[in-house]
Amino acid sequence: MRKDDGNDRASEASAESSFSSYADPLVHEALQQAAALEGSAEAEQLHKLRVALRQLRTLLWAYGPTLDKDFASQQRALLKFCANAAGSTRDWDIVIDLVGESGGSALVDAFRRNRTEASETSRETLSNANLKKVLREAIAEVNRELNTQASRTPLTQFARHRVTAAEKQLKKRIRVAMKSGTSDYACFHEVRKAGKKVRYLIEFFDPLLAKKQRKGHKHLKRLQKRLGSLNDVVASRNLLKTHRATLPDSDAIDQALRSLKKEQKRRMKAASALL
């Protein structure tokens, strides 16, 4: 058997028949992490759950042109809702990490109480969402729709086309961010989202892609790391502003906000240097 026989078989498959091979491991990972949350909402479990749900959203985006538009949009919106529910707890973990003891013990204690409340809300929201049923029904419906279509698209052709489409979207958003300078975080956030999409698609379809489509993966990971670091600071500032009235020691909050604003500018410049 030749070394690349596995890739040859994959390239002969259709995109429609291959959907489950990409979706099923992500569903398994999401449900595994969601089940672990029944005992406690640990940061690592929440992060892994969010990543799995984001990857599923990206996979649905990739298959979007072959699916009913309203159905695909509805499923992606539901996955986004669940990912956001899992994210609220981790946001408080980041605030605790960034502000730390510099805010004083009373403020840190308040952060931890809010983190506990967010954890309980996350678990309740995800439980009410019935994630297991939702995900399995969604994947089954996508498979039904794909497998009843008359035409078939070669998987390699499909993978390269969708990665190219995502790369074009990313390049467009990078151009907008570069024109905006370092004053408009919203543009950087759009780059971050588009970059995640490209990164996940490359990781899904790596064996099927042309070399030029894979070569930028390392740079993209570095950019995503800096944009993620920037997002942590922005999210922390927003969280402090939103909950300011319920937090003790307004002077400590003012100091934390000033410090985070300064750090945001530094991280904006660092991210901008990689665009």
Automatic annotation (TrEMBL):
It holds the Pfam family CHAD. Transmembrane segments: none annotated. InterPro entries: CHAD_dom, CHAD_dom_sf. Residues 12-275 form the CHAD domain. It comes from the Bacteria. PANTHER family: CHAD DOMAIN-CONTAINING PROTEIN, SLR1444 PROTEIN. This is CHAD domain-containing protein.
